[in-house]
Amino acid sequence: MKGVVCGLARRAESRLPMEELSVAVISPEVGVLGDCKGRKFPDRHVTILTEEGWQAALLDLAGPAGPPDLPWTARRANVLVCGVRLPRGTGSVISLGDCLLKVMRETNPCQRMDETFPGLMTALAPDWRGGVVCKVLTGGAVFLHDPVLIVNETAANKKVFLPG
Predict the structure, then answer these.
(1) Which residue from 10, 96, 125, 159 puts its CA 20 to 30 A from 23's CA?
(2) What is the value of pTM for the model shown?
(3) Residues sharing a CB contact under 8 Å with residue 159, sequence separation 6 or more, in sequence order
(4) Which CATH number fits domain 27-152: 2.40.33.20, 2.60.120.430, 3.30.365.10, 3.40.50.720?
């Protein structure tokens, strides 16, 4: 599957607004340069969200006037991609431009989403709409409109329910 990078963002400190970028420098040491999460949490350097998942979540929140007018940065992800289904398996590899990222897990929406818009946390929960959390394998510069490729997709993680 092939898609494109539709948005890039970072935040210098927790709870600050996201800053949209035209280029993001990504490294295995800090994740997105200038973002507060990568250095602190090395297994979640970069978060990726799909435009399609974001729009589906907003449709779930639609009222009589239609879906809310929320920017994708309300999700607080670093990268917005379009036209590609993100892999559901830990260990899958995604290419953003020249960078390679390893999927570590699904991004679980937090209460911060409901602070932004009531019900957003629940709307992002189904079908991996919140996106994926990744560790940087190979860094570089990522530009808007760079290609997004699924390099290697591992089997989806399945929850095992044991009797008793």
Answers:
(1) 125
(2) 0.91
(3) none
(4) 2.40.33.20
39-59 pLDDT tens trace: 787 778 999 999 999 999 999
**Residue 77: burial class (beta carbons within 10 Å; 0-12, 13-18, 19+):** buried
State both tokens at 77.
């992800």
- 38 C-beta neighbours (distance < 10 Å), count: 24
Joined tokens for residue 42: 């090395």
- List, for residues 61-86, the tens digit of each pLDDT value: 999 999 999 999 999 999 999 999 99
Closest CA to 129 of 119, 144, 143, 115: 119
